[in-house]
Amino acid sequence: MSIEIGSKLEGKVTGITHFGAFVELPSGETGLVHISEIADSYVKDVNEFLKVNDIITVKVINVEKDGKIGLSMKKAQEKPVSQTTVVKEKQTKTARSQARRHSNESFDEKLSKFLKDSEERLSNLRKNTDSKRGGRGARRG
Question: Which of 46, 24, 25 minimizes the C-alpha distance to 35?
Answer without folding.
Answer: 46
